Amino acid sequence: MSRERRYQNSEDFRLAARKRLPKIFADYIEGGAFSETTLRRNSQEFERYALAQRVLHDLAPEPDLSASYLGRRWSRPFFPGPVGFLGLYRRDGDLLVGLAAKAAGVPFGLSTFSIKGIASLAPRLGENLAFQLYLDRDPAVNDSYLEACRAAGVQMIFLTVDTAITSVRERDNRNGFRAVTRITPGLAWQFAQRPRWSLDLLRNGFPGVELVEGRSEFGRGALAQASALSSRLDKRLTWDKVKWLRDRWPGRLVIKGIADPRDAEIARESGVDGVVLSNHGGRQLDHGLSTIAQVAGMRAALGPAQGSGPELFVDSGFRRGSDIAKALALGADAVMMGRPFAWAVAAEGQWGAARLIDLLSAEIGITLQLMGLNSVDQLKAGPADQLLRRLD
Which letter does DSSP use for residue 198 in this model? Predict the structure, then answer.
């Protein structure tokens, strides 16, 4: 069977990635907080929204999937959001997803917890590169992150604000992720059971997090550095810190992790350029609301799309092009996707990430045309109550 026939959706990549990855990393990608209720809700609650089918409209040969956000026109209304440690799932995984995103004409979000760093990726990705910033408890470390962005010409920062309190992810606790700081006999056995992964990743030694390489306080190697980065997150993150960052960063600043319209209203007054409606993929507050259920309320809190207020992005639980279409119809400017790209690059490298972009794009295009629409702009123009029906 050809690769094109084998991979028809993100679930196909998930299953292939699980077969290739050691359990510690497969569970890290998939896991959520405590009972994983929020994790399940994120995906399940797309079913509460039905799309309206329209016929006998004058349709263009190809729908226009382009969308405006982050200061320019991009080819698609979705892009790979930041995922930690992509370079542990496939050698150079961060770069491979970034290259697929650049080729497709969309941004790529690079995590502070990435293996490849800003200095390595910026020359290859240019203005497509966005940096997801976790604030360290040490202001000097944060200044070094900002300086690295400035030196590399990065124009977009996504400040993550929903992880000052780290939740319990039981799968990670069982596997020892962020607790083990070296390769133990148990980990060595896991690695030995995944020879393709081991040969790909470990041929030049176990990698480290480039952004903090050479800083003794973070340890050596990605396992130790993952633990150190997590333990050093600023637990006194407040709106004053957002103002501090806004004063120091002249480029685009987006807050990632807003999950309540009341916080969105504060964000609107804070001078940021956008917010990401996110519950961190169900990895933080258990028994929280799904993100798709909050898009309309968040849009109302931020003000109308294409207005003077912050842009609205959304992530968590998106798996299908139809999921993306629903979020856009409800008021999102664009959608960020994390886990599906982690699975795709783990399974098939850059080809996998590019294939996933193509699959999602095709599904969005078909969805638009079956709704009687020719473009993403028409979908965003709504009104939502003519495009969607909520099933209660």
Answer: H
Q: How many whole angstroms separate alpha carbon 329 and alpha carbon 87?
A: 34
> What SS3 string covers 105-170?
CCCEEEECCCCCCHHHHHHHHHHHEEEEECCECCHHHHHHHHHHHHHHCCCEEEEECCCCCCCCCH
Is residue 383 reached through a cis peptide bond, with omega within 30 degrees of 0 on the bond before it?
yes
Could you confirm whether 287 is annotated as catalytic?
A: no
Q: Are 77 and 211 in contact (CB under 8 A)?
A: no
95-153 residue pLDDT tens: 999 999 999 999 999 999 999 999 999 999 999 999 999 999 999 999 999 999 999 99
Residues 6 or more apart from 199 whose CB is under 8 A from it? none
By the 10 Å C-beta count (0-12 exposed, 13-18 middle, 19+ buried), 269 is classed as: exposed
- Closest of 212, 381, 388 to residue 306, by C-alpha: 381
According to DSSP, residue 217 is labeled G
Amino acid at 35: S
Enter the pTM of the model. 0.96
**Active-site position among 116, 178, 252, 280:** 280
Distance in angstroms (rounded) separating the CA atoms of residues 65 and 80: 16
The residue to which tokens 């290259």 are assigned: 99
269-315 confidence digits (pLDDT tens): 999 999 999 999 999 999 999 999 999 999 999 999 877 789 999 99
